[in-house]
Amino acid sequence: MGYxxxxxxxxxxxxREMLNILAERQFPADEVAALASRRSLGTEVSYGDKTLxxxxxxxxxxxxxxxxxFAIGSEATKTYAPRAAGAGCLxxxxxxxxxxxxxxxxxxxxxxxxxxxxxxxxxxxxxxxCSTAQMVVALKPLHDRARIxxxxxxxxxxxxxxxxxxxxxxxxxTKGMYVPGQEVAPQKFQKQIxxxxxxxxxxxxxxxxxKEEWKMVAETKKILDPSVRVTATCVRVPVFVGHSEAxxxxxxxxxxxxxxxxxxxxxxxxxxxxxxxPGGYVTPIECVGDYAxxxxxxxxxxxxxxGLSLWCVSDNLRKGAALNAVQIxxxxxxxxxxxx
Length: 340
Description:
With about 350 residues, this protein is an alpha/beta fold. Helix content is about 30%, strand content about 25%. The protein has two domains: about 5-130 and about 320-340, Rossmann fold; about 130-315, Dihydrodipicolinate Reductase, domain 2, CATH 3.30.360. The strands form three sheets. It has a six-stranded parallel sheet with strand order 5-2-1-6-7-8, sandwiched between helices. The chain is globular.
């Protein structure tokens, strides 16, 4: 017997990926409902070889549904997540609304699967920020071996992290660069994104960090280990899909780069592509559509006593959002079965 599954925000980039991945991974769903706002009512979306018509989330009755994957943003989630959870439907939420609530688990299945039992607190599980998700997948096996003290990360985040509007703006600005008089002014981003990089994602905070950078710090501590110190610089780059990260790690114990490479090769969710030759690494365009977090450029850092540097790339719409949510649903299914 399968589950009755809801995908809320089914017409968006992440919602569509959720439907794709549910089908690809043959998630045991007897019925799937695609929800959207009233303005998208009746829009058709693909689920495997089926076509679903979206239903109005405002009037949807969650009673009798088992799992709801939410990709509708914090404001709408604030309204509809309690409604779904109150009806006994587990909410797996992709927004930032519940990530920092101590009563709600924040999960990356390769890192802290044991946290899934906390779903019973509020019938809600939070999905982490896209940049955090791929980083902690890479950090976890190394942390288990040598204990991480400090992480310095610089991100190179694609425009799809800002939704369809971000993708459209990069596309329109790029076309406009070649047509005199048709230049497109920034609207979604703070400055021109075409042929540029922008060292700001989300709003600035009092200490000079952006909220995206703060998220990486807070979420890494909650998912991986509260003792790990993290400093992040998050940058938007003119790439459509795929986030990249340059990660510098300081450990308590010495970890040789060759051993680190072997550890990562055996780690769940990780693929190591690390040849010291031109092109012997993975770039964001190569990771699109893949489930894995790719690790390249693993090398010793001689500026600290026990340090490593590495390059980390992943499809932000998949591992950074939709895939992680479906993996949490799979975890939840196993937990329910285990408890009878």
